[in-house]
């Protein structure tokens, strides 16, 4: 009996110690951001405003650990409204902090507002950016790292250092000018590719270029994100192989790569070992579906510099795959598989959560295309071009049951509207009922789709028309979980989602022009249980706008009190 009692005490002590470790390793991170325009940075030697945060372009790193609480006090020193969204951060039970037009009123010029969100049960490589008014084309983006807690092992040796590489296409002119002519059929495409806000190495118009310094024999972790507006790119380093280890919060089966396709809005982590002769080597990001190989502006070029090198990078750039070879890209995407045996944010293996035996309760079939509506070109989902109401959907849902802002399921989730229309497209998803989403691309460019609030399992993708029998080709053994998936021209991608995170969540094209001109909808996941442990109430500092701007704060405070009771 005494022995059993001792065992119980030891077990209790271990549980308490584990709880204590969990608590003390969750921290609060406080950040003050002053967002403003800078006319002197001129990354491509053009007179254009660049959106900076605390004078930085790209913006400052958010360096968090699993379950940290991040407080970001945003001061809007721009001349127009502003919101930030946190690409890939799931905002568990808290869509109030998602930072898109359907969840938040914008921060007005001259005002400030504080986001408070938790990196709940997440690890990985992400980024943030301004989500409204085409502002992302002017900058304002920056990296997010969510590190493992010390009690969770990482499935690779600790690297010597980590580097964030924010890579994306860039316009030659002001984002305001581009925004003003997006309705024109012949609007120009981005003309540059920047790496960490810097122009290509060797280009006379680049004010500076990016350099990564390494020590011979050491291994480094590169966190790569496509923060651009339109173009996928192929990433490679001259004479150096990469080992892919993570994407958007999921550890993957490690594969060696000579190059990696990164589509708009996607993030990856790769290991690179400095195992070559001491010299400088090209780092290249070349656009997909473009004859830009010899274009000195549209190929991003940085330098991998060995710290004892005296030999500059010269000669031809390293060759990548044919930019029009979509089969190469498809095959590479299919080779990226979930690591089933390692833990991530939690100690249990990722493979604990597998989709092999799930029952699908709902299917969305979403087709992206273009249409002319009211004589203007628009992007559509199932022939509906999203129309942003003056009150965020989440506020209208909470205070007015959605009345006056949207009609739930007014448009079909699996077939196209007969005529192209503007509309507030809000689709219902069954809470905790597995859902299949099939994305179809009728466009002539690579599209990418992102779902806020979730990671989804990429079970299939390919060219041609999707058909129900293609479900037999799905990878249900080890599909990777991520939040952004590419859809090839004329092709399809299929994902599985478990809607266990109540809220109203943005489902959008990551291609900025498509998104700005209507290629988005919102998914409403409703849990009728009013317990705030199931979904958080509105924050005390909530911003009100539109038809709800007259709601009295006394009513708001009373409702918040009731929700917290």
TrEMBL record:
MF terms in GO: copper ion binding; oxidoreductase activity
Entry similarity comment: Belongs to the multicopper oxidase family.
Record keywords: Glycoprotein
GO CC field: plasma membrane
Plastocyanin-like domain residues: 44-149, 165-308, 423-527
UniProt xrefs under Pfam families: Cu-oxidase, Cu-oxidase_2, Cu-oxidase_3
Name of the molecule in the record: Putative laccase
Domain of life of the native organism: Eukaryota
């Amino acid at each position: 009996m005494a022995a059993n009692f001792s065992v119980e005490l030891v077990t209790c002590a271990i549980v308490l110690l584990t709880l204590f470790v969990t608590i003390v390793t969750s921290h609060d991170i406080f950040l003050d951001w002053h967002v403003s325009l800078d006319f002197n940075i001129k990354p491509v030697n053009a007179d254009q405003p660049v959106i900076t945060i605390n004078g930085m372009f790209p913006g400052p790193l958010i360096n968090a650990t699993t379950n940290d609480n991040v407080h970001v006090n945003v001061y809007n020193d721009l001349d127009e409204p502003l919101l930030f969204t946190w690409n890939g951060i799931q905002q568990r039970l808290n869509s109030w902090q998602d930072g898109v037009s359907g969840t938040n009123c914008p921060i007005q010029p001259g005002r400030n507002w504080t986001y408070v969100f938790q990196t709940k049960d997440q690890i990985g490589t992400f980024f943030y950016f301004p989500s409204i008014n085409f502002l992302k084309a002017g900058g304002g983006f920056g990296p997010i790292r969510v590190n493992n807690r010390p009690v969770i092992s990482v499935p690779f040796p600790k690297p010597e250092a980590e580097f964030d590489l924010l890579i994306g296409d860039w316009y030659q002119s002001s984002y305001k000018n581009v925004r003003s002519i997006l309705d024109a059929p012949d609007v120009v495409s981005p003309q540059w590719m920047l790496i960490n806000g810097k122009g290509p190495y060797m280009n006379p118009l680049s004010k500076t270029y990016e350099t990564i310094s390494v020590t011979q024999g050491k291994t480094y972790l590169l966190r790569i994100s496509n923060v651009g507006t339109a173009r996928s790119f192929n990433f490679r380093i001259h004479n150096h192989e990469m080992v892919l280890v993570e994407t958007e919060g999921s550890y993957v089966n490690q594969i060696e790569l000579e190059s990696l396709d990164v589509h708009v809005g996607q993030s990856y982590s790769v290991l690179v070992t400095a195992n070559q002769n001491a010299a400088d080597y090209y780092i290249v990001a070349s656009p997909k579906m473009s004859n830009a190989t010899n274009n000195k502006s549209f190929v991003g070029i940085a330098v991998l510099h060995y710290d004892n090198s005296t030999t500059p990078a010269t000669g031809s750039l390293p060759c990548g795959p044919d930019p029009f070879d979509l089969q190469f890209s498809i095959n590479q995407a299919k080779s990226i598989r979930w690591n089933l045996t390692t833990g991530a944010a939690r100690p249990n293996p990722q493979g604990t959560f597998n989709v092999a035996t799930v029952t699908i309760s709902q299917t969305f079939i979403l087709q992206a295309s273009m249409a002319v509506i009211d004589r203007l070109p628009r992007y559509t989902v199932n022939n509906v071009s999203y129309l942003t109401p003056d009150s965020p959907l989440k506020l209208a849902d909470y205070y007015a049951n959605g009345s006056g802002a949207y009609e739930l399921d007014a448009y079909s989730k699996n077939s196209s509207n007969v005529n192209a229309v503007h509309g507030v497209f809000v689709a219902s998803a069954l809470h905790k009922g597995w859902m299949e989403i099939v994305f179809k691309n009728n466009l002539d460019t690579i599209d990418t789709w992102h779902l806020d609030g979730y990671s989804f399992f990429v079970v299939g993708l390919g060219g041609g028309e999707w058909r129900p029998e293609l479900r037999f080709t799905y990878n249900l053994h080890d599909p990777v979980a991520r939040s952004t998936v590419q859809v090839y021209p004329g092709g399809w991608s299929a994902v599985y989602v478990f809607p266990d995170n109540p809220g109203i969540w943005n489902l959008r094209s990551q291609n900025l022009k498509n998104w700005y001109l209507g290629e988005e909808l919102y998914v409403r996941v409703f849990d009728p249980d009013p317990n705030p442990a199931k979904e958080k109430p509105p924050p005390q500092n909530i911003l009100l706008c539109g038809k709800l701007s007259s709601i009295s704060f006394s009513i708001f405070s009373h409702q918040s009190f009731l929700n917290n009771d």
